[in-house]
Design a protein that fits this description.
This protein is an alpha+beta fold. The chain has three helices and 14 strands. Among the domains are: 78 residues; 116 residues, Distorted Sandwich (Glucose Permease (Domain IIA)). 17% of the residues are buried. Keywords: Coiled coil, Membrane, Transmembrane, Transmembrane helix. It comes from Cohnella cellulosilytica.
């Protein structure tokens, strides 16, 4: 093309005394130079535009990062608070586990005491502490006393140890609870059977008086002065005082004899009989069912007697035995 062959002359005059410098550029070279200048201008403009845009974006990202950092700090604070709450809850749970263990020991102690009350074998647990909240053999302690001491931070190792101890305590309690119900059911059945036995066993005083005037065995007869066998115990009292059935049973005799005076014989259905003599009045009737503590007559001095008293006999499988070991309780504590 012709325009490519065209040349342009550029003159540079440094000053008045210097020679003029001339440069000749073809149209193509000039076009390339102009293009390069324009490209440089465009590149610079683009760079400036991108820089401004990046500066704005960087500012926005910094704001977002600051906001996110604040959120994360709040989340961490919340987590710290939550962790502290969990640690506190764990400490409470550990205390509850200790308290439950103490209560379990109390229940075992009460079970042993109940067995002892009805005459059952309480086992080795009968030596455990009473349910009074005092320190027991294993160092457990009541949870209702005072506390104090210096407050120190809890380390991770100590917290992990508490977690393990609490887990073991709860597992142990779970096993104890799993075995407690059938164990208590067996105890309930045994106590019920024992109560049935106690109901027909003469274990209470037949009178309000506790004054024994003559014991069981060989003694000097008050009428003849000779040694004779005394088949019961004599309990002194006042005429008209109530006489009580020493156990549940059926009245098999209720009448008068020259030696026993007004007397009542009760069969207790377990091979044991009780005999009450010298009554001033008989209240029970033959064939009637009586309960332990029922009034069967009144104290007196009928028959072969020197004064108001109750002659009380206990007969086991047809043989007279000493009644004193059976005189264990009052009607109120039976």
């Amino acid at each position: 093309m012709k325009w490519r062959n065209r040349k342009f002359t550029f003159m540079v005059i440094p000053d008045a005394n210097s020679a003029v410098k001339r440069f000749h550029l073809s149209s193509f070279a000039l076009a390339v130079a102009v293009a390069l200048v324009l490209a440089l201008i465009v590149s610079c403009a683009t760079a400036v535009w991108l820089y401004r845009g990046n500066v704005s974006r960087i500012g926005q990202l910094e704001l977002e990062l600051s906001a996110a950092t604040g959120d994360y700090e709040r989340i961490l604070e919340d987590k710290d608070v939550h962790i502290n709450e969990l640690q506190t809850d764990l400490a409470d749970l550990a205390e509850q586990a200790k308290s439950m263990a103490t209560r379990m020991k109390d229940i075992n102690s009460l079970e042993s005491e109940l067995k002892e009350m009805v005459g059952l074998d309480a086992g080795s647990s009968s030596a455990s502490r009473k349910a009074s909240g005092a320190e027991n053999d294993d160092g457990e302690y009541a949870m209702d006393g005072g506390t104090g001491g210096e407050e120190l931070p809890v380390s991770d190792a100590e917290m992990n140890q508490l977690v393990d101890q609490t887990r073991e305590s709860l597992q142990s309690l779970g096993k104890q609870i799993a075995t407690m119900k059938p164990k208590l059911e067996l105890t309930k059945e045994a106590v019920a059977k024992q109560l049935q036995i106690l109901a027909v066993t003469p274990t209470i005083w037949p009178t309000d008086s506790r004054r024994i005037t003559s014991t069981f065995g060989i003694r000097k007869d008050p009428f003849t002065g000779r040694a004779t066998y005394h088949a019961g115990v004599d309990i002194g009292g006042k005429t008209g005082e109530p006489i009580y059935a020493a156990a549940d049973g059926t009245v098999t005799e209720a009448g008068h004899s020259s030696s026993h005076g007004n007397n009542v014989l009760i069969n207790h259905s377990n091979g044991i009989q009780t005999h009450y003599s010298h009554m001033s009045k008989i209240i029970a009737t033959v064939g009637s069912k009586v309960r332990k503590g029922d009034i069967i007559g009144e104290l007196g001095s009928t028959g072969r007697s020197t004064g108001p008293h109750l002659h009380y006999e206990v007969i086991v499988k047809g043989e007279h035995v000493d009644p004193e070991p059976y005189l264990k309780a009052t009607r109120r504590s039976q």
